[in-house]
Amino acid sequence: MIRRLLIANRGEIAIRIARGARELGIVPLGVYSDADEHALFREAMDASIRIGPGPASESYLDGEKIVAAAITLGADAVHPGYGFLSERAAFARLVAAAGLVFVGPSPDAIAAMGSKIEAKRRVREFGVPVVPGYDGDDQSDARLRREAAAIGTPLLIKASAGGGGRGMRVVDDLAGFDEALASARREALAAFGDDTMLLERYLQRPRHVEFQILADAHGGIVHLGERECSIQRRHQKVIEEAPSVAVDAQLRARMGAAAVNAARSVAYTGAGTAEFMLDASGTFYFLEMNARLQVEHPVTELVYGVDLVHEQLRIAGGARLRFTQEQLVARGWSIEARLNAEDPARDFLPQSGTIARFEVPHAPGVRLDAGFRAGSEVPLYYDSMLAKIIVWGTDREAAIARMTQTLRETVVTGIATNLALLRAIVADGAYRAGDTTTSFLDERMPSFALAGAVAGDATKRRIAAALLARAGAWRLGSVGIPVDFAVAGERVRVQASYDGTRWELAGGVTGTVEPDARDAVYDARGGSVVVDGRTVRWDDPAPPGAGAEHSAHAAGSGDVTAPMPGKIIRIAVEPGATVEPRALLVILEAMKMEHRIEAPVAGTVKAIHVEPGQLVASGASLITIGP
Q1: Are 335 and 423 within one domain?
Q2: Residue range 131-188, pLDDT digits in tens
Q3: CATH number, residue 622
Q4: Number of independent structural domains in the chain
Q5: What is the pTM of this model?
Q6: DSSP-derived 3-state class of residue 425
């Protein structure tokens, strides 16, 4: 029996596992990096040990440090959570070699399913349909280029190791294949330590449907139905639900059997997920198997009444499954929304900073799995997810109504989030009708108008308050302080006077504001405030010039800055190079994703201020482009 459990993870999943362990009488133990010294998840542990600095490669991805921490803390088992080392066979072997129980499948099963290439080979032998493509051993660029031409476009380049959308690129034109392949290889190597690639036909408007499985070490194996996970951005899920509107009882039986066979193909034990693409005709293809607990596991728990963490721990302790397939019956409908620290209005740029307010309603049928709270610092080294908001209802309509109200009452300030996007999705007619495919966000995002101008007096007052708080001006107790900003194409000039309690505004907007801008978000190019869940941006006006020519030059500045903190992965230009607008300048890695930094104007590269491997702050000057 497991008595002391080392949880080799962070954030909400570490808290979730710790809670499940305590309920079974198991002592939860943790590890943390310097960036997480004051993180919320540490409070869920009986004890925790520092394992290194902020970068994951020096902390959460260092298996030897984690095993050493487990031994020091007297653990007899290790739960990897998801991400990080959860699907690294070498880590599972390291845990076993130390005489500890690994809460998950065997190293051999992890290795087989951790390689998408090997996984496809294994499941094919068990009659599971797979997406047409190339998964051969020859990984040369020339061979992959030839196979890509044979498969045709649209084409998906996919890292054989890992998941979460990292190391994946869609190619619509083979002229861009080489660049996409190089980028996918870099990202895969950085995230998983393996740049092996496979190529697949990119299916148009399919659904992403996955099946939860549980298997014990005695030959028992069941599935717990499907989850609809089609609403994604950059191949990362945003909204998930169980069951799926596209799966009836007959299709569920066929796909469930395929999921079970996929698990049997590698003698799987523990909790895992078989992922499929499903087209409109009901034809489905195996994509991959995630040899771990999934982010979206709560929707299955709420629909089937099974605690998946409890079952993982019991199976790892040698127990048999406590139920048969026939005993697993779905009840009601559950939806999960991932609340992320990212700005949908700016191409989902990850955000870091301090959360000012974090309020999710406590209500019947609402579950919150969160790794942060008000006052928490969101570091730049890890995934952008802050929390999962999960609801349950008697049917899909009831679940949507509950999620709609829950998101309406949720407040997160101090850092930009995707809350407005989540609200827009659940209010969308296509979503409510169940018309959800992997193309959903591409097709529906323009109608959401998340970056639309919202510049009424209330918004202007909020911006003024944010600027006053940014300057710390209220501490001066002064009168007639000028505030100057531009929003929605309008320049606003305000005079602010502080009476010791609040600000009185006069000029471009009038009224009073409190000296509290907890919903303000700042970046190097101005800032933003959150108004009714939408991010509204303002700009600091350009300095006055001698004439129109100077103003135009200032507006079209060629000084390229970092949109977020991150690490310089590649510099694509040299001093003196001529570039056109949208030309690739720099690749910046932030929150485990690569971001293209492109030329804002045509011109000549006058100076390069950074080098590969360098860590930069938000707003740092990267490259200067001149005439």
Answers
A1: yes
A2: 888 988 899 999 999 999 999 999 999 998 866 678 889 999 999 999 999 999 998 8
A3: 2.40.50.100
A4: 5
A5: 0.80
A6: helix
